[in-house]
């Protein structure tokens, strides 16, 4: 209405200026005040519009702030905090005092903030309109969405270079703070941390668990009855003759001696360091799909489904499953040390495992009253060099890559495809401080192209984790 009025007044002014009739001066003098009001009203309108925009921004910020603690505040406390925060974020010299009114509803739950004020009129006052009232409202609804995040973090030896492990610790602490602040009530946000190298540490205290396969560990860790042999295969191939003169089974027995094979005695399982390697495959390590690429539950008696114990000397820290114990999570980050070779697939599949539970992890049950967003953040600074079957630990292994992402066109999928097919959002980060080409493996593993990051300096880990933390936090709150 105001725009139409101003436009009409402007057209009238133009006609008066162009007219040459004798009574124009008298008429123009008579109409000068309403014309001034019409033109000046546009100025007042613009001032009011700008003030309302500032009012809305401050209202939005106040509602978001209150959503983090509204359920624990009294009405008086909420009103005090709302007014203080609002006024700290709103400044307009034209505006009269602002009234801020917050309200909390447990249904939703939600916070609504209404704010109202008025702008003093400069021109419209000539016709009795001394003030232009403005008001806004902001509502923040939360609690319908919950967040579960698995941080799969490269702890291999190369992370010691160029300040990468230090930057990773700083970035992860900051991300944990963001995720902690994104939650309002118990169960809103859970996080797991999965440090990985060639193997993954599930905790040595689990040595009696039924989901551990000891076949390979028993064969590699023990003592031989005949000195000089350190593996079961080499030990049990040896023997001794009851007649010491003879050193082979054939000569011993041909001279009426008794040949006795050496015996292998595995070490006590409580000496295990907690590391496991890749699970078995459906039909052997050369197949395109296997239990190392899935989170199927371990089945007693089916060794392919069990987690193979491995006494890896460069075992990373024990992984932590989903928890809201922020002190424990931050403590784990502080202890991270770079060591070992790179097996991204084992980190990725265990990140997935932590979200669904199984083995050493117990994932909190999903509440049907809520919507859940599940996320894996995978960070690695290198190329895959070694897993249970392939690679030498120093050069790139295309076989390990294939187990992580099957790009051959086969109907069988790799771990990345399986994770995404399960509805889990994947962020992948390549930290490249050595001039390596872009990892198409990590690039393809991301759920969408915008969730893949290639970094060329360690400090960029901090900014990227902040970006991811902001995005994940916004999933918890919608306006």
Polypeptide structure, described:
The chain has three domains: 141 residues, no CATH class; 275 residues, 3-Layer(aba) Sandwich (Rossmann fold); 38 residues, no CATH class. The strands form six sheets. Strands 14-5-4-15-16-17 form a six-stranded mixed sheet, with helices on both faces. A four-stranded antiparallel sheet has the order 1-2-3-18. Strands 6-12 form a two-stranded antiparallel ribbon. It starts with a helix and ends with a strand. With 479 residues, the chain is α/β, with parallel strands linked by helices. A hairpin with a 4-residue loop joins strand 1 and strand 2.
- What fraction of the residues are assigned to beta strands by DSSP? 15-25%
Tell me the radius of gyration: 35 Å
CATH architecture of the largest domain: 3-Layer(aba) Sandwich
Note the overall shape: elongated
CATH homologous superfamily identity of the largest domain: von Willebrand factor, type A domain
Q: What is the C-level CATH assignment of the largest domain?
A: Alpha Beta
Number of strands: 18
Distance between the termini: 30 Å
Number of structural units classed as domains: 3
Fraction in helix: 25-40%
Which structural traits does this protein have?
4-stranded antiparallel beta sheet; 3 domains; Rossmann fold; 479 residues; 6-stranded mixed beta sheet; alpha/beta
């Amino acid at each position: 209405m105001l725009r139409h009025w101003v436009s009409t007044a402007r057209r009238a002014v133009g006609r008066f200026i162009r007219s040459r009739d004798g009574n124009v001066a008298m008429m123009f003098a008579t109409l000068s005040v309403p014309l001034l009001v019409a033109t000046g009203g546009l100025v007042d309108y613009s001032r009011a519009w700008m003030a309302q925009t500032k009012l809305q921004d401050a209202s939005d910020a106040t509602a978001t702030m209150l959503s983090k603690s509204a359920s624990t505040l009294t009405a008086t406390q909420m009103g005090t905090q709302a007014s203080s925060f609002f006024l700290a974020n709103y400044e307009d010299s034209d505006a009269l005092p602002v009234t801020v009114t917050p309200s909390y509803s447990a249904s939703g739950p939600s916070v609504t903030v209404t704010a109202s004020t008025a702008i003093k009129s400069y021109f419209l006052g000539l016709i009795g309109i001394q003030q232009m009232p403005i008001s806004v409202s902001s509502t923040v609804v939360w609690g319908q969405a919950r967040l579960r995040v698995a941080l799969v973090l490269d702890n291999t030896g190369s992370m010691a270079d160029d300040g990468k492990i230090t930057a990773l610790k700083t970035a992860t602490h900051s991300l944990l703070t963001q995720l902690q602040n994104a939650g309002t009530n118990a169960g809103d946000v859970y996080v797991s941390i999965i440090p990985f190298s060639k193997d993954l540490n599930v905790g040595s205290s689990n040595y009696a668990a039924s989901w551990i396969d000891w076949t390979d560990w028993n064969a590699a860790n023990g003592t031989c009855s005949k000195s000089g042999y350190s593996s079961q295969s080499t030990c049990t191939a040896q023997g001794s003759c009851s007649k010491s003169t003879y050193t082979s089974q054939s000569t011993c027995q041909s001279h009426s001696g008794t040949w006795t094979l050496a015996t292998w005695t595995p070490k006590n399982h409580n000496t295990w360091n907690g590391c496991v390697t890749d699970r078995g495959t459906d039909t052997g390590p050369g197949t395109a799909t296997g239990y190392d690429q899935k989170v199927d539950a371990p089945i007693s008696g089916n060794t392919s489904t069990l987690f193979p114990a491995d006494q890896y000397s460069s075992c990373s820290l024990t992984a932590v499953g989903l928890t809201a114990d922020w002190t424990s999570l931050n403590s784990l980050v502080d202890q991270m040390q770079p060591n070992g070779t790179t097996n991204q697939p084992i980190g990725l599949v265990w990140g997935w495992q932590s979200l669904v539970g199984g083995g050493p992890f117990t994932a909190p049950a999903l509440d049907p009253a809520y919507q859940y967003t599940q996320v894996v953040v995978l960070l690695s600074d290198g190329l895959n060099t070694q897993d249970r079957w392939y690679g030498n630990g120093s050069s790139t292994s295309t076989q390990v890559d294939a187990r992580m992402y099957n790009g051959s066109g086969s109907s069988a999928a790799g771990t990345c495809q399986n994770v995404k097919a399960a509805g889990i959002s994947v962020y992948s980060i390549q930290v490249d401080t050595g001039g390596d080409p872009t990892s198409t493996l990590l690039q393809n593993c991301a759920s969408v192209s915008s969730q893949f990051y290639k970094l060329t300096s360690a400090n960029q880990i901090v900014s990227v984790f902040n970006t991811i933390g902001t995005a994940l936090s916004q999933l918890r709150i919608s306006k």
